[in-house]
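All the exercises in this workshop are built on plain-text protein records. There is nothing in a record beyond a sequence line and a structure line. A learned vocabulary of local backbone shapes supplies the integers on the structure line. The question running through the whole workshop is how a given chain folds. Here is such a record, shown just as it appears in the course material:

***
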Amino acid sequence: MLQDKRILLIVGGGIAAFKALELIRRLRERGAHVRCVLTQAGAQFVTALSLQSLSEDKVYTDMFSLTDESEMGHIQLSRQADLLVVVPATANLMARMASGMADDLASTVLLATDKKVLIVPAMNVRMWTHAATQANLATLKARGVEVVGPVEGAMACNEFGLGRMVEPNDIVAAIEAALSPQARPLAGRRAIVTSGPTREAIDPVRYISNQSSGKQGHAIAAALARLGAETILVSGPVSQPDPVGVRMVKINTAQEMLAATLAALPADIAVCAAAVADWRVAQRPNAKIKKALYGPPPRFELVANPDILATISKGDVARPKLIVGFAAETEAMLDNAQAKRKRKGCDWIVANDVSPAMGTFGSDSNTVHLLSDAGIESWPTMTKVAVAEQLAQRIAQHFQQAAE
């Protein structure tokens, strides 16, 4: 998709600048040509030599270099690229872009270009939420500048919040989308994805849950968003970062997940990848249950949780056009998955073996089987990201075929 595409990478001054090195590697692996402009502030974090070694091209730093201007002036530098990418886009760089300043090579190139621009913001959370930064962001978006990130997470300033730069693979996906609008076959579609475990309280400090990490569900949400779908991710408590370009709804219990899923309807696509607890405690005490020194352990009455997949598949709701369930099994996997698909009423079901020997929970790989009216597809063992991408492509193909 990026073969022979020309990327002008403008490296700004922030600790996240080190990710530009990994980004160059990923772009080069996909056949892109990368040329770098390094700002004076950026040079405090990465060296021109590092950028040049990875890009295998000259790094430009000085607008008043007689040699650089004679060989390739800043006007040509800005216009010979297919896409300009600013990584990281600091608050200062964004402000200068919004103001139309041209006082160094980076800002001059950005002002002189007639090509598409993608910025990748990274800064302290208070800087990001400041009214001035948000006004500059709105100005840039109104001019057609594309933005990816930031995301919520820990930052180098020892604070946590919105402002962390997205990872290089997410930037690559945004670059691919920017250069290949036709590669967004789910544009105009709305998708709901559930992910992670639920937690059902026993008392204020204990709960019933499971080992789901949310890696697969989060990867699916990200893959659908990359294909253009407006994606809502309803997630239980996980340690996974929020996917780029996805609207997050964070919940704890199965009842909260059902309510959030129904509130997100109508949708074209629903992928129920969450590992929802089947039961909850009927009566939860308001205080911690104390352990009796010599008494018997406490007994709890359990009641069934709502069945989210069955509710949206067969209930009196605006049913999505395509509903995909998940079947995590430890025995008779395909038989149990097939029975679950019929019982729940979903269109497809993705079956995987989660027995301890497989090590599926928490790992980065998965071996799945896709069951539908057309039969059973057994996919080879792949990373969960690759499984997500293949599933998203299959969903896109389904809608393309339905439209023919």
About this structure: The domain at 6-182 is CATH 3.40.50.1950 (Rossmann fold).
